[in-house]
Amino acid sequence: xxxxxxxxxxxxxxxxxxxxxxxxxxxxxxxxxxxxxxxxxxxxxxxxxxxxxxxxxxxxxxxxxxxxxxxxxxxxxxxxxxxxxxxxxxxxxxxxxxxxxxxxxxxxxxxxxxxxxxxxxxxxxxxxxxxxxxxxxxxxxxxxxxxxxxxxxxxxxxxxxxxxxxxxxxxxxxxxxxxxxxxxxxxxxxxxxxxxxxxxxxxxxxxxxxxxxxxxxxxxxxxxxxxxxxxxxxxxxxxxxxxxxxxxxxxxxxxxxxxxxxxxxxxxxxxxxxxxxxxxxxxxxxxxxxxxxxxxxxxxxxxxxxxxxxxxxxxxxxxxxxxxxxxxxxxxxxxxxxxxxxxxxxxxxxxxxxxxxxxxxxxxxxxxxxxxxxxxxxxxxxxxxxxxxxxxxxxxxxxxxxxxxx
Length: 406
Known about the structure:
It is built from eleven helices and 24 strands. By secondary structure, it is of the alpha+beta class. The strands form four sheets. Strands 1, 2, 6, 7, 8 and 9 form a six-stranded mixed beta sheet that branches. Strands 14-15-22-16-19-18 form a six-stranded mixed beta barrel. A three-stranded mixed beta sheet has the order 4-5-10.
């Protein structure tokens, strides 16, 4: 991600995805809670927990009597409200938790930031917002993916842009970004689309590439169309960065197939499944992950169509083949000596399918580790260039999502 605008796109393309909210949402992960005490989170992993409504999540969390654990699960429920786009349910629950756990929130910087996210005017607007809904037919559609933000701009790097429209006939191109948990709209695009900004709602987010404390706002978009599917009353995040159609809305489009050139809505079910994909919410920022090995190191790969690289790794390979200078974004809040990437050649294995690939490691960047067999191992991102070898079949409702070789 970068503070530069869309027309300075060649380098910023790399940083246009994989963001997460750097507030109490992350601290709510029960990573430091003993396994025996994770009753709420164990329930979440059951079939009932995975399919639970927001009301059922609230009821289960209310059964937790310990104050610290109740605060933790309450933040999880709040995160699910954001994920579900249930804007008008947020104010009442947000204020109730803020009041009940005022002391604990006051002494925790992350939680304090989270519960300062909405001011009174914004909460009033959210209360009056219409219900989020998804309209449209479930017919088969094939939508074109464009390599650039528009046809008149030529960039050194390309990403999958999709045409997104509104009920008033305005359209814009958004990066189809499975690595971004939340849909994000550029400030200028927000004006064109008629997004109603929340006047006193602000948040800060970070990226997997080391940028931290990036400021953004929130707003409500009355209508957003992808093909014949229409989202109504959409709570979106607004910043000075590129437009991203994130996993929060991608996951609500139904069964999908993403190839190098197209996004298919409601395609026939995939006949094979080379590498099963699961929807992970371990850090409350949902992402698509697939079991993988890189240079015989077991890990999880995040499927990130908003990352221009073929593969990005959280740790270096054994032999450096190329080192190049790279400025990772123009944000004035970014600090650190992370101005180089190192390129490696390695062996990627997915469900027995082995490829020799070129990948990048950015020293000091912050792709979070995965926990496998009780040990932290490097995470990797499979980016858009990998789609010359793979296609994504996404069917979250049936639990059958796959990354298949082309």
